[in-house]
Design goal:
This protein is mainly α. The chain is built from three helices and no strands.
Length: 132
């Protein structure tokens, strides 16, 4: 069976589109996994904060790291959404900007709270009697 150049081109286009679709689905699954892990890390950090067994500076540093990971994930989601739009038949991609803003706001509140906690801890240390 002899295929014309046009048939070969159509077949290659379909193969390329299928490859893009598989790549999108793989990246989406990885992002879902990463976001779930970030949620778990945030919960663990929240528990550590309430236990008060770790230093506030260490907790703040861990929170900064989580914030950076969240920003990275947010950027990768934007890239993934662009790749989705490049598909001939884009997947339904929920509008997650509202969710992202809520998460960002919660992360900022945690940072503010830990900042206030470190200020109170510093104030409490100043109020302690000096024993020398």
């Amino acid at each position: 069976m002899k295929l014309s150049n046009k048939d070969i081109e159509k077949q290659l286009d379909r193969s390329l589109e299928l490859f893009k679709q598989v790549e999108f689905e793989k990246n989406l699954a990885e992002m879902i996994d990463k976001l779930n892990k970030l949620g778990e890390k945030q919960s663990q950090l929240s528990e550590k904060t309430q236990d008060k067994n770790e230093s506030l500076e260490n907790l703040k540093e861990q929170q900064k790291d989580l914030n950076k990971e969240f920003e990275d994930a947010k950027n990768k989601l934007s890239e993934l959404e662009k790749k989705n739009q490049e598909l001939e038949e884009p997947n339904k991609f929920p509008n997650i900007e509202k969710d992202q803003e809520e998460i960002k706001k919660e992360l900022e509140e945690v940072m503010e709270t830990s900042g206030r906690m470190s200020g109170k801890a510093l104030q409490n240390r100043r109020n302690l009697p000096q024993t020398r």
